[in-house]
Amino acid sequence: MDRFDALLAFARVVEAGSFTKAAQTLHLSKTTVTQLVQQLEARLRVKLLHRTTRQVRVTPDGAAYYERVVRVLADLDDADTALSSATTSPRGRLRVDVPTPFARLVLMPALPEFHARHPEIQLDMGVSDRIVDVIG
Question: pTM for the full model?
């Protein structure tokens, strides 16, 4: 049993009030969600949900466990978001050689906004009207 999948399945069942609805939101079969929750209950040796043919209700132990599971899942989401946003921010050195009129009319006016949006980029700009050997 993957504990993360089991915790997520349990939380979705509690939130949806149904194994079927939880399975739909997780894009899993109802059987898989049921098995994950059953394995979690077996591992914990606690009944987390009261099940009938018409409804699913959280037990007192299940409610207490749910509160902690929600915090753990939120912390994991925050960690993922922090890491992915940190690695998607462009950084490094960018060297640009442009003709004087283009620099004066287009690039120079756009530099403050560019720097505000991408503070970790070091821009080295060469401005002249001479022909530049880009490869060299």
Answer: 0.62
- Provide the CATH topology of domain 90-127: D-Maltodextrin-Binding Protein; domain 2 (3.40.190)
DSSP category for residue 104: I
Among residues 52, 16, 54, which one has the least CA distance to residue 33? 16
Burial 34-70, CB ≥16 within 10 A → b, else e: bebbebbbeeeeeebbeeeeeebebeeebeebbeebe
- pLDDT per position as a tens digit, 55-103: 899 999 999 999 999 999 999 888 888 776 666 678 889 888 888 888 8
Residue 37 amino acid letter: V
Q: What are phi and psi of 121, to 5 degrees?
A: -100, 125
User: What architecture (CATH level 2) is domain 3-87?
Assistant: Orthogonal Bundle (1.10)
- Cβ(62)–Cβ(14) below 8 Å: yes
- What's the N-to-C CA distance of the chain in angstroms? 58
